[in-house]
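Supplementary Methods, section 5.1.

A reviewer requested that the exact input to the structure prediction be made available. We therefore reproduce it here, unchanged from the version used in the analyses.
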Amino acid sequence: MRPTPYVSSLRVYEPITAFTPADQLRWNQIAVTSPTGWDEQNRALRRAIITEPPALKPDGAHVLEHEGKRYIAPWSTAARCWVALDDFKTTLPPSIVKFFLPQTIEDAISVNSDIVEDKVSHIITSTWNIPPRWFSLFEANDRLRGTNEDGPYTILRTSISNAKQRCLFAHQAVVNAFGNGPIEQEIADLLEWLNIFHAESIVECDYGGLAIYLEKTLIENGEPGLNSDTSIEDVARSLAGLAAGDGALAGQGYERLVTRWRRVAAFEQAM
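The structure derived from this sequence is encoded token-by-token as follows.
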């Protein structure tokens, strides 16, 4: 099983030519078969035990080869740690943050924050679930699933141009149905993030270890494992219903999706 089996990831792989010559040299040395997923997760677990300033550590990257070209999704560890710290601090009153996060740890995460603050991460992660808006970026034929040494897996992969077009449709459907609000803003933020990257990039949603839990819950409910996962289709159905003003259709898709992933999220409480 993966070191952090409760994490799903949305990644953008940019063509290696979009990076600086120094980065291109570094990323070209990574073999496509390298276990970069394991490496990234093992370092994340290590940071949970030993405070290591991420801005001072050599960072890694995920590598993808498609049609003879190399694509790169840098881990962006320092930027992601900095954003996570900032998000955490906004959830608590400043006077009590220190009781949850000692100053020494905050200082370690914030080392050279002025350097990483303006960097954009190529990776967004979610724990114990996959946000519905991620599924809106893909169609059923973008789905890859099977079993490897870590167990069952599901990966969704498409061009960034397709992802942006579908994200825009999702945003318009939600705005037309509900107007502006938190859900609309989350989709708008996702589209804004996609617009940052190279026009020939590839977008990937990796279920990570959640594929193991999803398959378990599907089998327990009398379904044939991951092959019965219709999360993409359910979101598409829901958005089609919203676009057509058909609340019943929209509700059917959303209810199927939420019910499926609620069972996966329940494992967090069982740990």
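Confidence is low (pLDDT under 50) at residues 113-118. These observations are discussed further in the main text.
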